[in-house]
Amino acid sequence: MILKVINQSKHPLPEYQTPLSAGLDLRANISEPVAIKPLERKLVGTGLFIELPAGFEAQIRPRSGLAFKHGLTVLNTPGTIDADYRGEIKVLLVNLSSEEFVVQDGERIAQMVVAKHEQIHWETTEVLSDTERGAGGYGSTGKA
């Protein structure tokens, strides 16, 4: 897939880190470091603007290393960028650790996965088909 992008950042375009990676690492594009205190959230710009084709979304997800090592994750995960959005991609970071984390310019702060999706049309009904699970909710599967 070819994706149109405007790169107003100081950094190269995101790249896949391995040949089988699903996500592209997004970098912070900031003029000065951004300190995020414990339980604080900050919106961090990337300087990237994209044009997704109809039927696709971009999902913004945490980077596992930042989450594990520093408790830094992405709120509203996965964040969805719709095909009609043309603004800057920004990442809503939250610090779930007990220590302040400082985001540096150019730091890889999140990953972006582009995914195909469908739009639904509702069909109202009075009954749904039966399944083995039925109406079993949270924690209902895997019980012996």
How would you summarize the topology of this molecule?
Layout: E1 4-7, E2 24-27, E3 34-36, E4 41-45, E5 48-51, E6 56-61, H1 64-70, E7 72-74, E8 79-81, E9 90-95, E10 101-103, E11 108-116
Antiparallel strand pairs: 1-5, 2-11, 3-10, 4-9, 6-8, 6-11, 7-9
Catalytic activity: dUTP + H2O = dUMP + diphosphate + H(+)
Family: Belongs to the dUTPase family.
Domain dUTPase-like: 11-142
Question: Could you explain how this protein is built, in words?
Answer:
With 144 residues, this protein is mainly beta. It has one helix at 64-70; strands at 4-7, 24-27, 34-36, 41-45, 48-51, 56-61, 72-74, 79-81, 90-95, 101-103, 108-116. It has a domain at 21-116: Distorted Sandwich (Deoxyuridine 5'-Triphosphate Nucleotidohydrolase, Chain A), CATH 2.70.40. It has one helix and eleven strands, in the order E-E-E-E-E-E-H-E-E-E-E-E. The protein has a four-stranded antiparallel β-sheet with strand order 2-11-6-8, with no helix packed on it. A three-stranded antiparallel β-sheet has the order 4-9-7.
Question: Counting H and I runs of at least 4 residues, what is the number of helices?
Answer: 1
Low-pLDDT parts are: none
Mean pLDDT: 95
Q: Give helix % range.
A: under 10%
Shape: globular
Q: What is the number of strand segments?
A: 11
| Sheet with most strands | 4 strands, antiparallel
Q: Given the helix and strand composition, which structural class is it?
A: mainly beta
Rg, rounded, reads: 19 Å
CATH topology of the domain at 21-116: Deoxyuridine 5'-Triphosphate Nucleotidohydrolase, Chain A
The end-to-end span amounts to 45 Å
The CATH architecture of the domain at 21-116 would be Distorted Sandwich
| Spatial order of strands in the largest sheet | 2-11-6-8
Q: What portion of the residues fall into strands of 2 or more residues?
A: 25-35%
The CATH homologous superfamily of the domain at 21-116 is called: Deoxyuridine triphosphatase (dUTPase)
CATH class of the domain at 21-116, please?
Mainly Beta
The H-and-E topology, N to C, reads as EEEEEEHEEEEE
GO biological process, one term: dUMP biosynthetic process
Organism: Mariniradius saccharolyticus AK6
Enzyme class: hydrolase
Domain dUTPase-like: 11-142
